[in-house]
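ok so for the tutorial part 2 we go from a plain amino acid sequence to predicted structure tokens. step 1 is just haveing the sequence, like this:
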Amino acid sequence: MSKRQISPTQLALFSRSPIIGAWWEELHQTDPNRAPKPETDSLNKLLCDSGIEHEKLLIKSLIAEGKSVDLRSGSLNQSGYVSTIEAMEKGYDFIHQASLQNDELRGVADLLARIDKPSKLGDWSYVPIECKLSSHPKPIYLVQACAYCEMLEPILGKRPEHFKLYLGGQKFLEEPDGFCTQDFWSWYLKIRERYRDFLNAFDADQPPNHEPGDHGHWGTFIEEELQKERDLMLVAGMRQSQRNKLRAKGISTIDALAAIPADQLQPPQKNGEPAFSVPGMDPPVLLRLRDQAEIQIQPSQANGKPAFSVRPLDQQAKGLKMLPKPDQGDVWFDMEGYPNPLTGKKLEYLFGACYRDQERPSKPQFKSWWAHDQETEGEAFSDFVQWVEKRRQSQIYPDLHVYHYASYEKTALGNLASRHQIHQSLIDQWLRDELLVDLYPIVRNGLLLGAPSYSIKKVEQLYQTNSREEAVTNAADSVVLYAEWIKSGEPKDVGFGPGHSKRLWDLEKYNEKDCQSTAQLHDFLLQQPIMEDISPRLNKWEEGGDIENKDGKKVQYEKALEIAARSLLNEIPKHLKDEKAIGSRGMSWEVQKLLAQLIDFQEREGKVEWWEFHNRKGMSVEEREVDTEVIHAAKFEFKKDLTTQSKGYVYSFSNDQPLKLTARAGQNSRFALAPLMEKEGRLLPNEELRKSKKKVFDLEGVLDENHPNRITLKLSTRKLNELKRLGTSALPRYCDLILMPKQIYKRMLGNLVRQAQGWVDEHKPLPAAMQHLLDRRSIPALISLNAQVREQPSRTSSLLEEFLATAEGVTFSLQGPPGTGKTTVTADLIARLVQQGKRVAVSSQGHEAINSLLKGVESQLNSSSLEALVVKLSSSISESADQKFFSGTSVQALQENAIHSEPKVLGATVFSLVKETFCDAPFDLLVIDEAGQVSLSNLLYMSQCARNILLVGDQQQLSQPNRAKHPDNSGLSCLDYVMSGEPVVPPDQGVFLASSWRMPPMLTEIVSELFYRSELQPVLANADNKVFWRGREQGLIFESVEHSNKGSLSEEEVEWIAALVEDLQGQPYQRVQQRNGELVLHKGELGPRDILITSPYNLQVNRLEERLGGKARCGTVDRFQGQQAPVAIHSLTASDGDSAPRGLTFVLDPNRLNVAISRAQCLSIVVGSPQLATGISSSIEGAKQLNRLCRIMNVNAYKS
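step 2 — the prediction. this is what the tokens look like for a chain of 1200 residues:
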């Protein structure tokens, strides 16, 4: 092994580029002449300079606070190391540029911070602080921080338990202590181990095969090498996964791909396979990439412009046919943004538009709107929107469109509307009406361009005669120049001379050039000869009304919510010094702002859902292929009878798609059909199926649980008649299926408006329990209650009953990790409250959780010989299923009009509890089960129904997904809001059920360490939970199975698990269980119900079921939440991060992994590829996920 000490920076580079970047860096370190250090570009130089300034500001603020700071030079020599230790021994509060080393590492820590924890130094210790300019933490920062923790360990006598990150925006993360070192240590040690192996095997004469990716400061150099090698990534639209498949087939260059004869990729006229194919790649995809490669290698035209061709007329359905009729009032739009590295915030600082007016109709004019802070950003955005609307509403330009290139502008407008909470309904209508026309997918689907990308800078070479000569020519230049303007102190006025800024003038000219280029591109497309045979796309607003048949009342409701939210925001003083100060409404300004953001939360979610849907409709074929909510290239297989009034059309699709959809989630989903036509082996967009200009043709689709690559579309007689009116009686042979927005929240809009207007216009107070929650008020009594629960877990429900006896207007949580009896405790608590004459409402995100808890309550009432009316408030849709669920119990499933007396316990969804019927707190307690899946906004509107609120759940299990980027904390679940980012509920905010009654101590301790900061404690009696077989009797086992290139199906793991099941079947086991309040030892032999097998992927689950033939229960993790078995086996399935559909973050999702491991009463087995641990993470959470995996893989090496 090399004796040269390495730096944390080198280790961090290895963590992000372990083969390529690390190799070139090692060559540079050992032979710099062969690998000179790459030059730093202007953007990275700006970031470096800003980083130095960032550190200086921190040091300045620390000194101003009276802290003692030792300023050092950061010398990497013996004198530097010794003097750093001397400074630590003197006990400085902070040590800047601290030189550290051990036998293998050496480096300079940005800062060391003194903390009051004993060490070899005395009563104090130190933790490293990494100062980084980025506004978001990155895994490479964690690697560097862990390296400094390693170097500090011999000096302190122990490894620092925490480290800190100080990021852009002058903020410390994870305050007050910082990041927990243990959350990353197993991952870090794995990186260290792999890097040692890398250095041992390093051969300076064996360079790696270059691949695209994140290679740190070697990135630009690697890109240049790939271009020299004529790599496949030169092909526009080529994805890494496609590149890998082509290289595996022996095709490694753009020229080799272009040389494949097109006829060899086309299937024969009659059924059959093409003469040439690539495993794992659909023939139409291969043909499309081959066509692109072919035009890219063609020589430029005689005038020097790149080669291009216009696709044939029958391929223009999503291309040039998407162009509306040109209008004299059309606008061509572009925006510039600046990610401020010091504040950590993104500023949209320039809105620009080209347009024609009546005075000068032949030459486009330019108009700009500037913003230099968050407040003026909102004003500029509003001014631009109102300017467009004024042109639209005039009698002159009612049919104008706003053209832009690529999705940034469209997405940014939506985000601005949400962030500033202005013009949300208007932007929503713009997007639904397709007023905004993105020319990128039109170009992508309508032309073939001989260039490595379809960026505007490449496309404009077709129609511009001169290259760009402005001071600013690309986005990176604009970021640098705007940063220089900020530092310069120049005026805000654009132009030359005194009182003006030349830098801003250059930026405006860059923006104007992009707007002009977009206008010229539009003209270029309209001038193509093929346009003579194409009719312009019709304007959607011509038909009147709102898209998807929204009635006037609902539109009015939406505006009412936006107006209510805006009213609250407008009351908040600008340039507020103290957000916690009490405002005119008796709440803090901070809470008033949050309330405003929560009021129209559902509308933000709903709008984004529609925006995403319309965006998917306009996507290119390539984009839809990788979208997680589009079933791409579905192929009709056969038809079957469903009922006398409907047929089922069964379609198949590729298993390789990274779909979020599951058989369970897709049962009641509707899909818009985007027809595809097959031509010479290619799948091309075809004409849309539309019921009208604004309504797409959609069908209900049910994914097949037994065949995860099949979906059945239901075609009723009514839908068949609709189809006939569209001129066809058959569904397309090929189509993309785009998930339709559900928008079920609209059923409660009227009640949301009633409550919101009551708070805002009538100044009604918030329900006391909700105000308590939003204020995050401490509940001191819970601290002692938590201690009692830990000491006497069997008394949990009675202790909670005693607490609630005197509680008034409080919200608190009950966090129940796996096996702690959360549902039993909650049901017992409700039964006890009923016995005291209290009324309780139960709600959750879905009917299943509500029904399960109600059944538990009924069981507890029966065991206490209590009679009480327990009702599930059913809808017309859920009533039948509810009645079936409660069959044989005394729980009644009734619609609202059938309830004639007051239930003691009422289960209902948010749609019911927001009604005026339940205002004025008719219930003593509202229990929210699975509260991690219920939005804070939904709780706000439900809180009217009860005096106190109990949030039950565990945020370390499955949680609430959001679509929109909600401001501040308004996108959190109600449980997330209480948890404040902690894995365990703060002791003054809720009760933590600390005793796991399910798992044996060995397994409990690992689950506790990985997910609950070691706060979950075992029940010692469970040490008797054992399986008597050839392997370990209890706890956790990792079974390493080597395989490669496997995604959602691994036959190797299927066979390995089949062998495990064979070994386990019929073997004796024993587990402790409660019976009549006493612990007894149950003994048995393992049968099919006693072995539970999970996987992240449906395809693997189905293959396991087929292979095992009923010898075990198999399902996805989501399916088995809340269930248990003596043995649980979890198949990770994917070979590595690159092979994993939906990425490592899906495979290693901590909530799913927690659920999967913790189902076991005796023995939990994780089966997986060891290569998963070599994955590269792009986020802090991803690094934590890899750390958990490394810990699980090394489970035998740790004392459990």
